[in-house]
Design goal:
Elements: E1 9-13, H1 18-29, E2 33-38, E3 53-56, H2 62-71, E4 76-79, H3 86-91, H4 93-114, E5 118-124, H5 147-166, E6 169-175, E7 177-179, H6 195-203, E8 210-213, E9 225-230, H7 231-244, E10 250-254, E11 259-261, H8 262-273, E12 279-282, E13 291-292, H9 297-303, H10 312-332
Parallel strand pairs: 1-2, 1-4, 2-3, 4-5, 5-6, 6-10, 7-9, 8-12, 9-13
Antiparallel strand pairs: 9-11
Helix pairs in contact: 1-7, 2-4, 4-5, 6-8, 8-10
Bound molecules: uridine-5'-diphosphate-4-deoxy-4-fluoro-alpha-D-galactose.
Length: 338
């Protein structure tokens, strides 16, 4: 049963990915009918919710997207399919523009063609660049310093004009750093580039040492500060975002409002895992802003969102617990890249 509002037919792009699979769980729990499209470039078929209809396809495959939208009478799209690794976007911007901008536009135009008027878009803190003001409010100037953030901003801007021209209402959620896991789904990329899963792989002994990218940032211990938000809290915001579309389009930060340095994350992981976690310092990673901390005031006030798992320890604990099984799950899935 839906907790609030009517049951909807929702297409979730990227629903086989880390965040997408948890968002699908929340949609199912809220009573919605879910349909997932994912090309499985980085997603996992076994993470797709069993109650969802799954289409293994690319969002740039317009005939298939049109068919999915029309056949299933889709009423809203949660658009999460994208490339999202900052470093990769700096070495290969074409793929980021192709997937995140061109792919997004093709999807949006298919929605227009099929009369789908609601979209929730996964944007990113990377649209802000390196603002001096922290915590960051939605109103600060948008000046991305990496290609990834630039592609997400380009799609944010397209949404504004598709609303103006075609009445497609949007909620933009600018994610800060997703962390943790649900019972069934968690963070699993190959290759992995994200801090928490890598730290935990070092704790498990599968990677010998964690590289800390830069210790000369203007922060208390010289390492970058990020705002970690539990993936389940993050997922719940999508349901609130859907319900809010009746009131019109808007944009929200999605972070906990608290920043932790890379070294603080490692220390917390040492406590959770009771393992040593050796580290070495290396050069800064291209495109990394020194500090990204959200002001979540707007989403708290306007959508009534509150994080249930805001402390770093519980995020790392859930990731640790889930990850202790993930290689087994991934291998058992028969996916070629494992
Ligand atoms: N880091 C290390 N060593 C590693 C991996 C990461 O020191 O092995 C550092 C990074 O330099 C960064 C911090 O840990 O300072 C967090 O890095 P992640 O790769 O986990 O996450 P990012 O902050 O780079 O990026 C994530 C998402 C982006 C999003 C961004 C917004 O992947 O999509 O958060 O803050 F844009």
């Amino acid at each position: 049963m839906a907790t609030k509002g009517k049951t909807m037919n929702i297409l979730i792009t990227g629903g086989a990915g880390y965040i997408g699979s948890v968002v699908t769980e929340e949609c199912v729990a809220a009573g919605h009918n879910t349909f997932v499209i994912d090309n499985l470039v980085s997603g996992h078929k076994w993470m797709v919710h069993p109650n969802s209809e799954f289409y293994e396809a690319d969002i740039r495959n317009t005939p298939v997207v049109n068919q999915i939208l029309q056949k299933n009478r889709i009423e809203a799209v949660i658009h999460m399919a994208a490339f999202s690794v900052v470093g990769d976007s700096m070495s290969g911007p074409y793929g980021y523009y192709d997937n995140n901008v061109s792919g997004g536009l093709l999807l949006l135009d298919a929605m227009r063609e099929s009369g789908v008027k609601k979209i929730i878009f996964s944007s990113t803190a990377a649209v802000y660049g390196e603002p001096e003001e922290q915590p960051i409010e939605e109103s600060v100037e948008l000046r991305p310093t990496n290609a990834y953030g630039e592609t997400k901003l380009a799609f944010e801007k397209a949404l504004k004009w598709f609303d103006y021209a075609h009445g497609i209402k949007y909620t933009i959620l600018r994610y800060f750093n997703a962390a943790g896991a649900s019972q069934r789904c968690g963070e699993l990329h190959k290759p992995e580039t994200h801090l928490i899963p890598l730290v935990l792989e070092v704790a498990r002994g599968r990677i010998p040492v964690l590289q800390i990218y830069g210790n000369d940032y203007p922060t208390k211990d010289g390492t970058c500060i990020r705002d970690y938000v539990h993936v389940r809290d993050l997922a719940r915001a999508h349901i609130l975002g859907l319900e809010s579309l009746e009131k019109g389009s808007d944009v929200y930060n999605l972070g906990s409002g608290r920043g932790f340095t890379v070294r603080e994350v490692i220390d917390a992981a040492r406590k959770v895992t009771d393992r040593l976690i050796p580290v070495i310092y290396s050069d800064r990673r291209d495109g990394d802003p020194p500090i990204l901390v959200a002001s979540p005031a707007k989403i708290i006030q306007k959508l009534g969102w509150t994080p249930d798992y805001s402390d770093l320890t519980s995020m790392i604990e859930s990731a640790w617990k889930w990850g202790n099984d993930h290689h087994h799950l991934a291998k058992a899935s028969g996916e070629p890249r494992w």
